[in-house]
Amino acid sequence: MVDVDTLQSMVDQTRRFVRDDLIPSEEWVEEHDEIPDHIVSKLKEFGYFGMTIPEQYGGLGLSMLEEVSVVCEIGYASPVFRSYFGTSNGVGTLGIIIDGTEEQRQKYLPRIATGDCIASFCLTEPGAGSDAGALTTKATRDGDHYVINGTKRFTTNSPHANIFTVFARTDSKQQKTSGISAFLVERETPGITIGPRNKKMGFRGSHTADVIFENCRVPAHALLGGQEGVGFKTAMRSLDHARLHMSAVATGLSERLIDEGLRYASDRVQFGKPISQFQLIQGMLADCAAEALASRAMVERVARMRDDGRPVTKETACCKYFTTEALGRIADRVLQIHGGYGYIKEYPIERLFRDARLLRIYEGTSQIQQLVIAREMLKQHAA
Ligand code: COS
């Protein structure tokens, strides 16, 4: 935990950075499909790559409440900027923090915290998306090494990554999740190919691609935590954290979209007055405000619960489900407020609408969140 004043100054600094640097760069990023170097330098300088990394390994060591407070601010800009440090701050690194050996933590975390080493998370495969436990990538023990074979799909930041957390089956007899282990695989290891970048609906500037492992030999000490068979749980625990972080992104983006809607509705004159004066427009704005407030309240409450050490798998899934679905409804209403101008590229809403769509899919679809929520409810009811 940092103190209240330090947190407030981080939030204020992030708010200024978003308005002075990130928002003015959004169109450039959209056009060039990359994040300019001066922005990457500032992301590093402000420590965003190491928000979750404990201070003893060079990170900021933020609590969950502190993290979501900063991320709600960052989420106000295009989510593409956050995506660049998102895997290093999230799923690509959390496994090392949660289950890594001391040696693994010391080796990787300080470099990840500075942004000099980009971390990426290789769970999804062509045949294993929502059913992550069905993955077929294999890691076969061979003396002091493991040999990894398989293809990972939609791997965010893989074209830039230096270290991959790779989930692979070490026990071929065990078809269930207990046969899965996690490995820390360095980009330079022979046998890794990064596929072409996926052409996506939105999120230009954030890059995903296949990562293909062909007889990729890693030393036995690359096994995360030095223990086979616990990789699936590492992945799920990492996702529990990352989904709450994602809920904060959805909240920040909802707040941005509302401001875009308010601005347009106040400027646009029809029937002799700004359209903001019409009650049907006001109804849409009010629905957006109520949902965004609910999102922020949920995120902060669950972050506090997590900081108190309470189990929050169900609550985190509730947050991811509600905040990203609310974001979808808000984006749709704000586009509707823009009318025809919402469908052309003159205003940010056209781009942000496409970006927002991804949040209901990645890091677990809304339907997977529903499933997690209901399973946890039934488990608690039966206990
Ligand atoms: N924390 C710790 N352990 C967890 C966990 C969590 N949040 N969720 C599940 N586990 C454990 C279970 O307790 C179980 O352990 P035991 O075998 O000791 O009982 C094990 O992991 C398997 O869990 P489960 O039986 O629930 O696995 P399923 O195959 O049914 O899958 C879902 C569970 C569907 C929730 C999981 O596959 C999932 O989250 N899918 C979506 C993946 C995703 O989000 N992908 C996005 C891309 S990655 S950025």
Question: How do the helices and strands line up, and which of them pair or pack?
Answer:
Blueprint: H1 4-32, H2 37-45, H3 64-74, H4 79-89, H5 91-99, H6 102-114, E1 119-122, E2 138-142, E3 145-156, E4 163-169, E5 180-186, E6 192-194, E7 208-219, H7 231-267, E8 269-270, E9 273-274, H8 279-307, H9 313-338, H10 349-358, H11 366-382
This protein binds coenzyme a persulfide (COS).
Coenzyme a persulfide is lined by residues 91, 121, 123-124, 130-133, 177-178, 232-233, 236-237, 239-240, 313, 362-364, 368, 371-372.
Keywords:
3 domains, Butyryl-CoA Dehydrogenase, subunit A, domain 2, 383 residues, binds coenzyme a persulfide, Butyryl-Coa Dehydrogenase, subunit A, domain 1, Butyryl-CoA Dehydrogenase, subunit A, domain 3, 3-stranded mixed β-sheet, alpha+beta, 52% helix, 4-stranded antiparallel β-sheet
